[in-house]
Design goal:
By secondary structure, this protein is of the alpha+beta class. 24% of the residues lie in helices and 25% in strands. Helix 1 packs parallel to helix 5. The chain binds flavin-adenine dinucleotide. Flavin-adenine dinucleotide binds next to helix 1, strand 2, strand 3, strand 14 and strand 18.
């Protein structure tokens, strides 16, 4: 029998926990280092809900991965007996013919992913109140939906520990960084090293899955932005049966009906101000509520005055082209980040992809490298740069 391979994964958000679980199940000895606890409110994975969609404009890679991830979420649900993924369907409010939604539909057709074109009036019948007179059509993904994200992150961590992962609560530092070289043993054994609780640890692979903290630790071209999300108190008709989720790509807005009594989520997807995930205030800004209300007035007018029931402040870690970062910075030392606000859904499938790379059985796609990126928004749900364009 060969030697057991070892990995240290830093960060117990959904990317780190999923990878730790995947590696452990493949026989690796894994240590998962997290400065707080899995599901803590500062991490991007702690949002109550995250959408799962296959539509990614003209990109096939992410559409395919989202599809694989859907299967994985459903399997995880069966395995745990918890409905982590709620397949409520998702509507894309297309403001023009031959735009991003049409490109997405073409890819879905190529990949045999279920989708339908709906007349806006027909789509409107799925909501208790809906105004879609400005829409060219609605693209419906019946097999999209939403994930109970914070819960899923906690469950993933629990499964990882059950699979043998050692979860350590500590803040890790790169070896040899300003505070990260306590014993001056830079030579080491040739395996990548990391400093945890002042001790140098080594493994065959070290993966930094640190979300919005990544640019604090490494020189990466990402921007961390504040994102406020709001949920509005709505009558029961907005939750039973589960309403489809929705995205307005050109209006940079998205949401879903009431789930788990949190209220209806309606939120702008425009990039917010630069944000510090560690110290930044987690109180939503009044302007964010106004933006969401503007959207309600336009699309779901009867909800315009609905009280805010729940709100969260979270952060995007944006690369310029919304492609992720999966990059080896030195032998065996990998960065996994730059999720660009669309990484949650993919986590179990991404973990499988990254595990193969760490194992040496797959080459990483060059698109995920640390090269200078050309700005692009097509992978995000936010095509409009003006808040709630046209509202
Ligand atoms: C408002 C909002 C809406 C979103 N909507 C969607 C959506 O609808 N669909 C979708 O797919 N995605 C969505 N996303 C994106 C998704 O949430 C992220 O892609 C995903 O959660 C990223 O997970 P992560 O594990 O990379 O990062 P995080 O969840 O932030 O986890 C990083 C972890 O690393 C830890 N850490 C950092 N530095 C250290 C250190 N030095 N030592 C130890 N621990 C450390 C942190 O404490 C943290 O727990 C959204 C994001 C936001 C903010």
């Amino acid at each position: 029998m060969g030697r057991v391979k070892t990995a240290i994964v830093v960060g117990a958000g959904i990317w780190g926990t999923s990878l730790a679980l995947r590696l452990a199940e493949a026989g690796w000895r894994v240590t998962l280092v997290e400065q707080y606890v899995p599901g803590h409110v500062r991490q991007a994975s702690a949002g109550e809900t995250r959408l799962l969609r296959a539509a990614h404009g003209s990109d096939e890679w992410y559409a395919r991965m989202a599809r694989q991830a859907r299967d994985a979420w459903r399997e995880l649900g069966e395995r745990t007996g918890e409905e982590l993924y709620l397949e409520a369907g998702l509507m894309w409010f297309a403001r023009r013919e031959n735009g991003w939604e049409s490109a997405s539909a073409q890819v879905m057709k190529n990949l045999d992913i279920p989708h339908e074109f709906l007349d806006p009036a027909e789509a409107g019948r799925r909501f208790p109140d809906f105004k879609g007179d400005d829409l060219a059509f609605v693209l419906y993904e019946p097999e999209a939906g939403l994930i109970r994200a914070r819960r899923a992150t906690q469950v993933m961590a629990r499964l990882a520990v059950a699979a043998g992962v050692t979860l350590v609560r500590a803040r890790a530092l790169p070896y040899g960084g300003p505070e990260g070289d306590p014993d001056g043993d830079a030579g080491g054994s040739g395996r990548p090293a990391i400093v945890v609780d002042g001790e140098v640890s080594r493994a065959d692979r070290v993966v930094w899955a640190c979300g919005g903290w990544l640019p604090r630790l490494f020189d990466v071209e990402v921007e961390v932005t504040r994102q406020d999300t709001l949920h509005f108190d709505v009558p029961p008709a907005w939750s039973t049966p589960p309403l489809p989720a929705f995205c307005d790509y050109e209006g940079s807005a998205y949401g879903h009906g009431d789930v788990d009594g949190l209220g209806m989520k309606v939120t702008s997807d425009v990039e917010g101000e630069p944000f510090d995930p560690q110290e930044g205030s987690r109180c939503v800004l009044p302007g964010s509520e106004e933006l969401a209300r503007d959207y309600l007035r336009r699309r779901f007018p009867s909800l315009y005055g609905a009280p805010v029931l729940y709100s969260q402040v979270c952060q995007y870690t944006l690369t310029r082209d919304a492609e992720w970062i999966i990059a080896e910075v030195s032998d065996g030392m990998w960065l996994l980040g730059g999720d660009s606000g669309h990484g949650f859904k993919h986590a179990p499938a991404l973990a499988a992809y990254v595990a193969d790379i760490l194992d040496g059985t797959r080459e990483v796609d060059p698109r995920f490298g640390l090269h200078h990126r050309v700005p692009s928004r097509g992978l995000r749900t936010s095509g409009g740069t003006d808040p709630l364009l046209g509202a």
